[in-house]
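ugh ok so i messed up the first submission bc i forgot one of the chains. this is the corrected input, ALL of the components this time, i swear. 861 residues overall. if the numbers dont match what u have on ur side tell me asap before i send this to the collaborators (the ones from the other lab, u know who)
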Amino acid sequence: MIEVTPKGLYCPVADVYIDPWKGVPKALITHAHSDHARSGNGLYIAQEHCVPLLKARISQNIVTQSLQYGESISMNGVNISFHPAGHIPGSAQIRLEYRGEVWVVSGDYKVEHDGISIPFEPIKCHAFISESTFGLPVFRWRPQVEIFEEINDWWRKNAEQNICSVVLAYSLGKAQRILQNVDHHIGPVYSHSAVAEMNDIVRSFSPQLPQSEKWSASILASKFRNALIIAPPAVNNTPWINRFKPYSLAVASGWMNLRGSKRWSAADRGFVLSDHADWNGLNEGVKATGAEKVYITHGYTAVYSRWLNSIGIESHELQTLFGGDNAEEMKEVV
Amino acid sequence: MKAFTELYQHLDQTNKTNEKIEVLQEYFSRASDEDKLWLLALFSGRKIKRTVKVAQLKEWACELAGFDQWLFDESYLIVGDLAETIALILPDGSGINRLTLSDCINIIRSMDKKTDDEKKVILFQVWSKLTGFQRFAFNKLITGGFRIGVSQKLMCRALSKSTGIDENILAHRLMGNWNADNTTFQQLVIDAKDDDDHSRPYPFFLAYALETDPDELGDTSAWQAEWKWDGIRGQIIVRNRQIFVWSRGEELVTDRFPEFHALLEFLPDGTVIDGEILAFKDGLPLAFQQLQTRINRKVVGKKLLADVPVVFMAYDILEFDKIDCRNKLLSERRILLQQLIQGDNRPTCLLISEEVKFHSWSDLKSLRLQSRSNLSEGIMLKFRDSVYEQGRKKGNWWKWKVDALTIDAVLLYAQTGHGRRAGLYTDFTFALWDNGNLVPFAKAYSGLTDVEIKEVDAFIKKNTKEKFGPVRSVKAELVFELAFEGINFSTRHKSGVAVRFPRIHRWRKDKKVEDADTLDNLKALIT
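and heres the new structure output, hopefully the right one now
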């Protein structure tokens, strides 16, 4: 039902692409991260919370169609619906059903509830196309409660010594997850403008997201002494970050589970916090679909696919351009 | 193990010297003497005997985790460290234990005489008691190789702060032939007398590279110039009618260089000289490559002895007539050295590194250009009125190497790095043109900035031609200027040449692949 073409994953019956990497007339979009949602498509069909994020990141002028989770549309006999993927706000798995056969494209997903995204729901299907960003057994996450304890401890100790805490996190998803889950009693939380823009959109459909003042040059430097600053990775090694001196720099990413990546990031602290499923999460996610065939995309495709075959789940690799290669998220954080 | 793990983790996380000293000092002030001694041993590169084979560690870790070996191997490729891979794939441990560093080391050493089944049981027990990073530290104790960025100097500074003993004295006490079994913390650090161990070398004084114009060093007459020889820095000690040869890596290499045993007759008791172990034949130094054929041979055959004889090129004298003379001025030490080394019965394997005479800096600049034809790496400059210091310090000694040789080469193969660079393509093979073909000739790992590494990494991922295991062949497109220290003909390399210390000098984005150099250009650089 789905094939890989030079423009991306394609469903010929419905004549629609999923997260295409080249401009196409009609695209189903799993979520608003740039490797899945690119510019140049005629129509963007996405989950309703994803739509304002897409517009903010691509252009306000794109043509969109929004669907709620579970709502279905029919395209030339193919029933299409979006289901929570738990990756970031508005992220979805896409279910396609044609003449009784069901395929699900996972996009990116995680099974742990992060407090800001609608939690992942496994969808029964015949064929499942799964990501595998962290498809190795060396990637196993501890519960986020423990990670946020670490983050709070780090922030609290810095605040006691008048050291500003700067955490680098992807501006859509990771940043709001941190904003939602840190202990706001420790001090004020400021957001870099790129993060603040995403905060406002997420808050428009998730009003429980705590407030965070947008950083501006007019804020007195003394206010930052006990503050947590949430900023995108791109600010690292730029003059922007120097204004917070003295500061402690942290990176929040699944890659921080490896000492090598932690050192590579040259941050003072690395927190193992990922919006992707870990090894156990992938296995759980795949098994819960009951799929007879599992296609593996971006990540450790060859290894994870071999693993599934070795435990009796038929699996194949799919070559896609999502997430570039293994180290993509790591590159993002540096 | 908790305290040690915290220390290790902290050292691993920071690159700030003061923070490292602080946490080390904290450890020294709290740990038991036994643990402190082990810490000193481990961090100064002393090894615990390997009692479990790597293959067994892997096998048992897989067994406990319930994985096939191939999955472990794939994980290892990404993690880049065996001890860490094992720690990460094992099921979670309880973390409930009162094991100290010494306990863990004793457990590891006790396995030496055990059967494989017993070893496995012990490992399973310990693994199940330790948490993530503790388990990693424990595995590191088994596999060896702590690389935590703690220099001897830094360790001595922390130890000095916690014991109140002068840092330089400690540096000397921690050198030499001790291990955790033949001494105690009290004996080694606190009660040590400086003649306790007559094999003990002095800490080496090391030079920084001269980056400014030598004119800034002032009056030429204040400086002694020598050729910078390309061998292994060493120290020869004659005490109690015994001879000891140490390499700079604090390795006792007496047996590897039987030539020097003749010096036992020649040098008076209570003599320590600093110099370079140099392959040398028919009055000329040989390439470092030749010396390499001898470095790792514990037993040296007659043929090798005849083919690659070595000399000790003496630079300095550190102990004369049983007295530490490091606090004398270089000009005075030089006279002592000359006195010592002259004499008709001097063995041919002992030479003095002659002064390079010069009258002006411009004189020396032109002399330096002859370094390569003299088979040296450049010029050493030493302040005549300076004492012999320890460690790498700026001011009194400078090395002024000749500019590296460079060549423009094409990136042909790439492999992912290990450790810090896991997951990124950072290990490269480079090629040069030869009759229209690109012939690989060197591998290089370092020299790019982090930003460039990411850019090259992205290129490789987009332009892969073939994959062979972890290696990818890449579309020939990127040109890099490689720098290296030396070059020689080689029968072992497909290209017919071997280059020494190749590294990336800069990325030549301005050059097209057809502008890269040829193999003949490279061969023309052989002197």
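quick check: Residues 324-334 of chain A have pLDDT under 50 and may be disordered. that seems consistent at least. The two ends of chain A are 38 Å apart (CA to CA).
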